[in-house]
Each structure stands twice: as C-alpha cells, then as structure tokens.
Amino acid sequence: MATRVTFIGAGNMASAIIGGMIDSGFSPSAITATSPNDDVLAPVRERLGIHTGTDNAAAVAEADVVVLAVKPQIMRDVCDTLREAIQRRRPLIISVAAGLSAESIEHWLGGNLALVRCMPNTPSLVGAGASGLYANQRVNETQRRLATELMEAVGLVEWVDDEALLDAVTAVSGSAPAYFFLMFEAMEDAGVKLGLSADTARRLAMQTALGAAKMAMASDKTPAELKRNVMSPGGTTERAIEHLEDAGLRRIMAEAMTACADRAGEMAEELGKR
C-alpha cells in the first residue's frame, strides 16, 4: 500500500513539495491537502489531482505522514485541533514551519511522536531548494528515509544531529536566497552605471550566478580553488576580488549570517511561548 501523506496547509511551499513528490513518482491518490478555504484548495486539486478537504482531523485519520505547512503564528491552534486524531494515528510528523522547536510542536500535539523539523527555502518552489532536516529520537530509519525522499523532491537535503544547528541552516540556506537577490540588485545598479540597460545587467548577473553554482556543484574543487582559476595575475577579476576583500566582504557576510542565526533562535523562543 502506498504511503499516505497529508499536508495541513496548501500554500506555496506545500504545493511545491506535492508537485515535486508527484514528479518523483508519488501517486496523487495517496496525497491529501487541507485548508479552511476551498478557494485555496480548488486550484491545487485541479492542477495536481490530489485529495483535498477542509477538515484537518479527518484528513490525518488515515495518514502515515502529516506535513505541517501552516504559518508559525497559527501552528499551536492548528495542533490543538489535530491532537486527538494525531494521537490515535501516530503518524510521522514533518514540520516546515520556521522558528518552532520540535519540542513545542510535539507538546502541542500531545507528545510521544516521531517528528522531523525541516528548514526549506524558497527555491523549493522551482525544484531547486535546499533543506536542513532534524529528527527527534522517536524517528526511526524508515521514517528518516521517507522524510528525505519527500524533501528531495524539491531539492537538496542535509541532515543535522543537533536541532540548534537549524539556526545555522537558516543563515546558510533558509534566508540566503535574499542575499543573492541583493547581490543581483547591486550588480544591476552597477551595470547601469557602467552603461548597460537594467534588463541586460540583470539577465547577465542572474545567468552568471546560475552558471557559477552549476560549476561549483559539478566540481570537486573548493570555492577558493575555483575562484583562483578565474583570476589571472594582474587581471580584471583579481582587481575586483581584491577590492571586495579589502572592503570586508567576508566580515560583512559573517556578521549578517550570525545576526540571521541569532534571530532564528530568538523567534523559536518567542513562538514557543505562544
């Protein structure tokens, strides 16, 4: 029998994961998504061919996996409505909500549950995501493989053994798409000042970032080695890199990512007390 997966929430991230699962071979008939608003469910149902519903408890009654894909601010209320059904069924729980600890979610659902926390990022929406996963002690190897399979449907998966490291994952990948969008913005502005049109500068910057990422992923060389391979002594790239280094790019990135990780920890404390 196929593994039955229920998504509580049918927003962009849930839809992306579901679409990736189906593309990877999951049967749409084994997937259910819920939302209090059928206007949200209708396009998902029509596009993906999955089951949908507005009754969360009914949707988890036969589920082997329940993916919690609702906003962190409403997670406790949603868990309250699911507690009895979850305790009867005892499925694997996967949370993709940012800033909520496994302990808080498990407590709200009644405790003694296998639970995986996942920190995805927005490129998951185009199948190029990067997700950090953490499993509590009740997750067995079969469930761990299943969680990996679900999230690999939308990109790269990396496991961490310490839940606190999900704050670092947030800094390195969860929030990081915005770092690159800022870089694109800055490069576009600089390109315009150098005489290019905004559209041309933007497309060149984005394609170059895509190409650099593909090269790095396909190579066994470190980023430092790849950087050196582009730099000819006394050339244009060397001049640019020297300027970035002298301007403190490494320090700026380290400080920004530390601030991001610190805020992730603060949010976990704040949201867990709601």
Q: What does this entry look like structurally?
A:
The protein is an alpha/beta fold and 274 residues long. The chain has two domains: 5-169, NAD(P)-binding Rossmann-like Domain (Rossmann fold, 3-Layer(aba) Sandwich), CATH 3.40.50; 176-268, Orthogonal Bundle (ProC C-terminal domain-like fold). Helix content is 56%, strand content 13%. It has helices at 12-23, 38-48, 56-60, 75-89, 102-108, 141-152, 165-174, 176-193, 198-218, 223-230, 236-246, 249-272, and strands spanning 5-8, 31-34, 51-53, 65-68, 92-95, 115-119, 129-135, 155-159. An eight-stranded mixed sheet has the order 3-2-1-4-5-6-7-8, with helices on both faces. Helix 2 (38-48) links the parallel strand 2 (31-34) and strand 3. Helix 7 (165-174) crosses helix 12 and helix 8 (176-193) packs across helix 9. It starts with a strand and ends with a helix.
